[in-house]
Amino acid sequence: MIPSLLKTFNAKDVQYLVNNFQYFLDNKFAFTRLFPSKQRTTLTWAAVEGAIGKNIIANVVARGASIDMNKRPDVSKITGDIPKIAIGRDMDENELYEYQALLALNADNPNGVQFIKDWADDYRYCYQGVMGRLEWMAMQSISLGKFSLTTSNNNGVVTETAIDYQLDSAQKIGANTAYYSSGTNGKPLSEDIPAALAIAESRGFEIHVIRMNRATWARFVQQEEVKNFCATFVQNVTNTQNVPSLASVNAYLATHADLYGDLRIEIVPSKSIIELSDGAQSTAVNFADKVIGFYTEGAIGETMWVRPVDMNVADKSIKSMKELMMFKHFATEDPVVEKTIGLANAFPVWNQAPNCVLLDTSGTSWSLG
């Protein structure tokens, strides 16, 4: 192992790249907002299971009387190991020859920064790969209450792992009238949303955000009820209702705060690309199709992470860190290959799982596992 076959490639410039490149700064992954990072010192994670956050009103008691102490809610923990998430890409001898021209163009630059920028596609690739896997894990969790790693969605040694947040069956409901597969007679505004709000109220928490992916949203706004409720007076009189925009549906919800409270809809990213060992690529859904999720405001979990032990190993590779993610770059001379690896010991833990409602729009009861 050597640091690099290219003399201008050094740890200082790589750290500059990682700290300042715009694709790191323009973070568009939803999980980083919903699951802010939290560093740990051990490779374990834990989430509370059970009803939490209920507001119990006080008793009226006589002066001088003893006060009956309320019980704490029964809670347990769902725990597991923080996994290692990694992706890498090689640049072989032929590709290196092509980059020699770029190296020559930067011969007068002592730091080779411009060349490093031109090289950065491998760093972007690794960054998006690791963050994309964390996004998939987080979005699968909050839309299904669980996720599973299988040979069809994970090209790694770990291919038979399942995480289940043990949501209560009352938190998983069906639509009043199913509409995902076909039909426009669904009742998402008059029946489904109020039903979810009622469940939340009965369990002692408040819903402020509705999330769904783009495919489910496309079916949601095709429902005649949604078109009619969100149309203007003139559109309804003249029967010229259009498919409403996200802004117009949210405006309708805000106008009827007496029914819906402080509620808004968000459309979340829905697709990732999985590459398997044979090189074949397939599309994986992040936030599950058919599901509408109802959540509390703000962060709903934490991305627990541990500094990779690789950063403490003295070797000849070039290493850098960007928050929870480590980059490792090195080369071999026989065969001639430059390698870039991105990795993280990280797991998005859904701490607020007990405070949600999931709705299956494809049936009148939950059928998604």
Model description:
With 369 residues, this protein is of the alpha+beta class. It is 30% helix and 27% strand. It is built from twelve helices and 17 strands. It has helices spanning 11-20, 22-25, 31-34, 93-105, 113-119, 121-144, 188-203, 214-220, 224-230, 233-237, 246-255, 257-260, and strands at 37-39, 44-49, 76-81, 84-92, 146-149, 161-164, 172-174, 209-213, 264-268, 271-275, 281-285, 291-295, 302-306, 318-322, 325-333, 336-349, 356-360. Strands 1, 4, 13, 14, 15 and 16 form a six-stranded mixed β-sheet that branches. It has a five-stranded mixed β-sheet with strand order 7-17-12-8-9, with helices on both faces. The chain is elongated.
Output the keywords.
single chain, 369 residues, alpha+beta, 17 strands, elongated
Mean pLDDT: 81
Give the biggest sheet: 6 strands, mixed
Using only C-alpha atoms, the radius of gyration works out to 25 Å
Determine the strand fraction and express it as a percent band. 25-35%
Question: Spans with pLDDT under 50 lasting ≥5 residues?
Answer: 72-76
What fraction, in percent, of the residue positions are helical? Answer: 25-40%
Helix/strand/pairing category: alpha+beta
DSSP summary: helix tally = 12
N to C succession of SSEs: HHHEEEEHHHEEEHEHHHHHEEEEEEEEE
- Please give the alpha-carbon distance between the first and last residues: 47 Å
Number of strands: 17
* Tertiary shape: elongated
Write a concise synopsis of the structure shown:
This protein has helices at residues 11-20, 22-25, 31-34, 93-105, 113-119, 121-144, 188-203, 214-220, 224-230, 233-237, 246-255, 257-260, and strands spanning 37-39, 44-49, 76-81, 84-92, 146-149, 161-164, 172-174, 209-213, 264-268, 271-275, 281-285, 291-295, 302-306, 318-322, 325-333, 336-349, 356-360. The chain has 369 residues and is of the alpha+beta class.
